[in-house]
Amino acid sequence: MEYAILTEDEFNNFEKDHIYGNFYQTSKWATLKSKYGWSYSYVGIKDNGNIIGGALILKKSVFKGINIMYSPRGFLVDYNNSDLLKLFTKELKKYAKKNGAIFVKIDPYVIYKERDNFGNIIDKGIDNSKVSDELIKLGYKYKSSGRLQPNLAFALSLKDKSIDEIFNNMEPTTRKMIRKNEKMGIYNREIDKNELKLFTDIMNNTSERREFIDRPYEYYLNMMETFKDDMKIMVAEINLKNYINNLEEEIEINNKEIILKEKEIKENKKINIEKTNNIIKELHNVIAGLEKRLIKGRELYKEKGEVLVLGSIMYLLHNKEILSLFGGAYGEYIDFMSTYTTNWNMIKYAKENGFEKYNFYGISTYTDKNDKMYGLYDFKRGFGGHVEEYLGEYDLVISKLLYFVYSTLYNKIYLKLKSKSIKKSSN
Known about the structure:
Blueprint: E1 2-5, H1 8-16, H2 27-34, E2 39-47, E3 50-63, E4 66-71, H3 82-98, E5 101-106, H4 129-137, E6 140-143, E7 152-157, H5 163-168, H6 172-184, E8 186-191, H7 196-210, H8 217-227, E9 231-239, H9 240-266, H10 273-304, E10 307-318, E11 321-329, H11 338-352, E12 357-362, H12 374-381, E13 386-389, E14 393-397, H13 400-426
Parallel strand pairs: 4-5, 11-12
Antiparallel strand pairs: 1-2, 2-3, 3-4, 5-14, 6-14, 7-12, 7-13, 8-9, 9-10, 10-11
Helix pairs in contact: 2-8, 6-11, 9-10
């Protein structure tokens, strides 16, 4: 086995067939990051000319001659092959030191322990805890906080399942919301860069409401231009004219049903009077709810016009996986619950086009119902699927002194300045 610098084609061909291949470990991601101060290279291990391990390595200067390195969602190696992992680490240390790196950060796209949809560890399921132990033994420092990528995600396996099976395995509330949205006329369409502002306006609204720092318009534009066909931005909309017509028709249908039930009571037909009266009462409640929505719909139509944009999600398509990367909805239209429709339509697209995994991506908790982010997990769980817990983030320290300085001083200042910069750019 020997260490080698790989060409872009060599690396891309290796990555696309690797079990841990992902969009972060691609030349397209490298190209995107190069627009933001990162340089990149592809390193690997060859055995008789065949690549058996590789990684995209990003490098960024933090001071003259001093750099940090990051292999996003890397490496692409067999982590259970101790000899390979040891050699890869040894050679990477040399490479990092030669390039003036303080440390090399990794956050492998590798499951730590297999879990079900409630986050419970599956008996005799995947268990890579020994891999974590091996990394630490090789000198990697485990990072328990301040991670760059989510360590918890929620994903839905599509392999060997029909679309009907997928739908029927969803929570009843989720199926109900999907049907309700379909009845209301909520639909999705894909936008291109000429309509990118639709997406960025939604993200800006969502970031203010949920208090996170959004990326600027230029960043999303660069993503679209870099990933091209490997990216889709789906916008959820509703035609308010059709919506109003549907509500009026539904109110009319329910009013006719009330008249019919009242007639049955008046004609003393052999019916359960109490039960029929309860049905009439419930129909009146339904109509009251429909009329409230009708009033709101007419107000929106008058103010916003015929088509109302509700929300949007950006997807990355890579190998057999579709990943929901960024998304949001206008707070004032949150009651339309358009994200149910967008996710369901994209799940159907994924299944129809041969994808085997639909990744809802990041969650921050699946246990604490009092956590303000628990609702995000609960929403995703409604579609079926399972919690994914990754190995976590590790720093391979090259210079202990500089790493200490960076971690305690520079990193805090850098992140603070970066946050202010991103916030200013997104306004």
